Amino acid sequence: MNSRDDHSNLTLSIAAVERDTGIGKDTLRVWERRYGFPMPGRDANDERTYPMAQVEKLRVIKRLMDQGHRPGRIVALSMDVLQHLSRGEAHLKEGQTRGTGQVREDLMRYIEMLKTQDHEGLRRELLKTLSQHGLQNFVIDVVAPLTTLVGDGWARGDLAVHEEHLYTECAGSLMRQAIVAIPQAASGGEPTVLLTTFPQEAHGLGLLMVESLLTLQGCRCVSLGTQTPVRDIAQAARAHGADVVALSFSVNMNPNHVVDGLMELNSLLPDSVEVWAGGAAPALRRRQIDRVCVMHDLAAINEAVKQWRQHKSKAERQANSWS
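Above: the chain's sequence. Below: its structure in token form.
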């Protein structure tokens, strides 16, 4: 929810708060006793009800926890302090590009279109950029940093949920159209890549970015969309003869779900199937997991495909020498 939304009188049940924020019911009750926040009211049935201002604060707390902050140090802080902390912790401050600190006016104009509800202008300008610069540059130089800006803008309260969804749908539809237009590579010499996310990960834009770049590399991509159970991922990998399972993790993904899910998937997949994981989830950088190749940025995808080709070529040469 966003500070610009007029829902000040709306309250949510504890079940709705759990769905909305990703913070469990038991955790909410513990924080209420231990830290004095949240402080729900009660309805006619004596059930907890949470004002939207508290839900907003819980969202910011959850994002900071996903970035590594301990709840005991942040739950009791004021909303102003939390938002200031969130701004400082964000990967990109508003209008800046990763690693440079330079304001990118070309990205900020997209943000302004979202804020003014100019969806037609947003789509037109994104399509123009895609047509002029090609799919690879569009994904790496525009969609990837802009997606981070939109996410950070939502966390700060500068963008509403519906504006974030509008951007996701617009960018996603353009990438889907571009993927379909890429000529199919000759079969047999390139990896088959199964793309999806774990059940706790609903964000699919990262998957489309990866699929775009893999398709440009000639890979055969099979996308299951988001939120696929781990055992179904392994079953689909076998059914489609996948050489690689590619997974996307957003910054909000619970670290335990990332690590536990990858370890379970490894136990279910044949040794011949590689696992590629990418995204902003901190867990991917904190812990090395056997058999999982972590992509720290989208540019690493081309190198991963190159390495796969080299390994396959080497294996084929060895097989021929033994025959």
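The chain has three domains: 11-87, 105-181, 192-322.
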